[in-house]
Amino acid sequence: MFEARITQGAVLKKLVEALKELVTEGNFDVSSTGLQLQAMDSSHVCLVSLALREDGFEHFRCDRNMAMGIHFQNLSKILKCAGNEDTITLKAEDNADQLTLMFESSNQDRISDFDLKLMSIESEHLGIPDQEYSAEIKMPSSEYQRIVRDLTSIGDTVLISATKEGIKFSTSGDVGTANVTLRHNTTPEKPEEQTIIDLKEPVALTFALRYLNNFAKATPLAPVVKLSLTKDLPIVVEYQIGELGAVKFYLAPKIDD
Amino acid sequence: LPGQQKLTSFFGVT
Asked: From the list B4, B9, B12, which residue is nearest A127 (CB)?
């Protein structure tokens, strides 16, 4: 038996909206410690890694480890039927072929339930080592969203360079070139408005903007985003979802022409 | 995209 209850059902709605364009399907791996998902896009260029902790839910029970194969567009269709203020409960019997989603309105006067058909998905898990990064940058998620959106209208790829001067995003295309530099800035009183650059060594890497732009669909989940960069390694774009957990996006770099 | 690497060349399948 698996059962997980989340009072802020809107978080689940936002999460699936953030993933569904990038990955069509994946396994929700549930265990007594929580819910995890690792899924690559169809071209194996980027990966979504989601980890929600058991103690982040109002109620969590998982008697037996299970991999629940989810089609994200279908899950999205069901979650669109949940109100933004609804409490959502996920339920499945052991080895079930369906996941039940129950929505309760905040004043408890409307209760609905939907069954999502589960899929059997053979997924390849990638072993992602814990490592030190050359540069870790925390910035407002709205700022990241704006930069990648703006640059996507100019070019296809972005060179991200982190130095002690700041973090610079550069692109070029048919219309011309664009550079946006953010400096380390801890002046704003609210931590979520600060830009914090933790630099061990300067690093510069090139990435496809299309994917970075897609990751920004997670902006409604968190006020801050963390970018982690190391020479010749994938970038990590990470959103902390309050006390519930985190979603991380990994994107392989482009080799410079 | 030309020059785009795949994640599987960085992280092994477990």
From this structure: B12
A37 near A27, Cβ under 8 Å?
A: yes
Helix pair angle (A9-19, A72-79), 10° resolution: 150
How far, in Å, are A7, A83, A119 from residue A10 at the CA level? 9, 8, 24
Q: List, for residues A152-203, the tens digit of each pLDDT value.
A: 999 999 999 999 889 999 999 999 999 999 999 999 999 999 999 999 999 9
Alpha-carbon torsion (A155, A206, A141, A78), positive or negative: positive
**The residue type at A133:** Y
Q: Which helix (H) or strand (E) holds A91?
A: strand A87-92
How far is the C-alpha of A249 from the C-alpha of A51, rounded, in Å? 12
Burial of A104 (0-12, 13-18, 19+ CB in 10 A): buried
Does A130 contact B at CB distance below 8 Å? no
For A185, phi then psi, to 5°, come to: -145, 105
ipTM: 0.95
Cα R_g (chain B), whole angstroms: 9
Please count the other Cβ atoms lying within 10 Å of the Cβ belonging to residue A249: 27
Closest CA to A249 of A215, A206, A209: A215
Determine, for residues B13 and A125 on separate chains, whether the beta-carbon distance falls below 8 Å.
yes
